[in-house]
Each structure stands twice: as C-alpha cells, then as structure tokens.
Amino acid sequence: MFNRLPSLTSIKVFETAARLKSFKDAADELSVSPTAVSHQIKSLEDALKIKLFLRHTRSVSLTHEGELLATTANRVLRELMHTINEITTSPDTLHIGTTNSFAAMWLVPNLEDFQNNNSDIDVQINADDNLYDVDNDRRIDMVIRYGKFKDQPGAELLIHESPGCFATPTYWQQLASTDCWTFLCTKWKNQSLPEQNVEQLLNKLIPGNKQFIIRSFNDENQVIQAALTGQGIAIIDEILVQNSLSNGWLLRGFEEVSSALAGLDYYCIIPERNRHNKATLYFVSWLRNKITSDIKH
Question: What terms describe the molecular function in GO for this protein (predicted)?
Fold first, then answer.
C-alpha cells in the first residue's frame, strides 16, 4: 500500500528544509551536515521525478510542487509526533528556552526540586535573550518568556510580576546618611518591551533634599550582582531575587516606589506538537505551582 512512498527520513529532512527555507539551518536542526541535507533532497527529487526546490546563489525556495508537499509533510509529521507523545512515556530530554536572567536567577536554583520528583526527565536549558521561534525551531520543546502576555494557542500565564526595590541590609541602614542614592536598572535588549521612565518616577517620590543617580545595565544578572556588592538599590522583579531574599543578602524597601512601578508577565508557550507531551505538561504544572508558592512566601 505504501511501497511507493519515500523514506520517512527524506520526508523529515525535506520538511525541515522547507520550513526553515535553508539547507544549512535544516542541517543545524537535524545535527547533520548541509551536504547530507542536500543529498537527501536530491534523492527525494530523483525518486519523485520533480523539482522541489529552486537553488539560488545564497538561498533556496520551494517550487509549486514543493509547496504542496511541504504543507502535507508538516501536517503529517505533526500528527505523527502528537500520536507518539500520547502513546509513549515521557521522553528522556526536555529542552526549555528562556532568558539568561530567568535561567540563572530562578530556574537553575529551583530545578533540583523538579528533578527530585521527575528523575526520568532530563531538563536541558537553552538560555538566550533573543526570542525563539518555538513553532519552527524543533530543538526547543517550550519557552518561558517575559513581557506582555497575549492569549494565544499554547500560551499560559505564569505570573504577573511587579518590580521592587532591593538592596543589602547595610545599604538600607546607611541610606539616611547618604546624600546621593544610586538606583540600578535594566535597559532591555528586547526593544519590544516597554521602557518605564524610572527617573521621572523617582523625581516624584524621592525626598527633595536627596539626590540620586541611575545606573543602567544590559542584563538583570548584572543589576543583581551590583546590588549584592552594595553598589545601590536594584529595581528588579522579586522572582529573580528570591534566593537573595531568603538568605538575607538583599532586603526589599521603598514600597512607595515599588508600588508605583509597572510590571510585566512571565508566561510560557508550548508549540502545538508538544501540547500533549507528558514531560512538558509535568514541567509546566511544576513551574506554575513553584512560582506561585515562591511569590506567596
């Protein structure tokens, strides 16, 4: 019945190259050489006796026949993955994409709690401040993002987080006798995130007899490290300093400033191919419960 069908490997290689519109990117996703991808595509074209790609100097594009096959291949492979995820036990590895700061300051310190109860699931963290194309990048099983939550397929709000003011106990104690206060802020790499006018806010709330300066960093990790070494008051999400708060290294203060700061959302996005994946569902359930528990405490 199916003896005239090409091999699943060639269809998988073709679907990847068609989706990414690049033999090189397909090779990276599949962990093979670009030559191997090109060979599989050529073999598939020879078997079908049609051209699926137009080769240009620095790129490739699909022919009409290639477009038709790509649409069907993508749908069939997604359905196959969906069924496999339903009938099999949890996979060995779960790849999580998230930001550098969330990975370093919250996820890694708390991951042992998940692993102790799910030892059969190996969680691999891909930390990058650039946004993952989770629907097309099959190296990532789900992403955790920070920004304005949008109700979309596969998206789940984890928590709406408001920034606060955090400094070492010594810094808070010396604040009254300090003429110039230093505030530590993050300048977002992601230009789509809304910038808050911290200077305008501080001008309204800081006593008139006090001066202040604002030092900006490109990463929340740097903000936290500067605060931990007594360089100033970090304006940052509380979830990222949970470990420092529980150990007494940092304390929260300036509630009049904290309450006026606008917050953003932590949320996760699960691509359609993984929405019934047991490992992914276990991890999201743990993530939601753990974050909520940490903030309450």
Answer: DNA binding; DNA-binding transcription factor activity
